[in-house]
Design a protein that fits this description.
The protein is an all-alpha fold. It contains 3 helices and no strands. The radius of gyration is 22 Å and the shape is elongated. The relative contact order is 0.09.
Length: about 100
């Protein structure tokens, strides 16, 4: 138990912050699960929209220090790489390789 009034107030504030942070983290996990389920369903357009929403939520959580900024950056990078493999494997997203012109000197 807190011994002083300021310690009691700090304990109450800590409980409020914990509840707020847990709600934000829960929302992040929900967005990430939604994105991953769209990836498994091979739904590239909806997955791209879900990634946009998740990226925004991760940035906002990092801005208010709910998660570390590098954690947000790492998650965004890994999830973007996963959606890139999905779009790269799609038959409509084939890249043209230009091998006919030699490099200019």
């Amino acid at each position: 138990m807190p011994r002083t009034r300021s310690a009691a107030k700090q304990a109450r504030a800590s409980l409020r912050r914990r509840a707020h942070n847990r709600a934000i983290k829960s929302h992040l996990h929900t967005l990430e699960r939604r994105f991953l389920s769209l990836l498994e369903a091979k739904n590239a357009q909806d997955a791209a929209e879900a990634l946009r929403l998740l990226t925004s939520a991760l940035d906002k959580a990092a801005k208010i220090r709910v998660i570390h900024s590098r954690t947000a950056s790492r998650k965004k990078s890994r999830l973007a790489a996963r959606i890139n493999t999905l779009t790269a494997s799609a038959p409509t997203a084939q890249r043209a390789v230009a091998t006919s012109s030699p490099p200019a000197n």
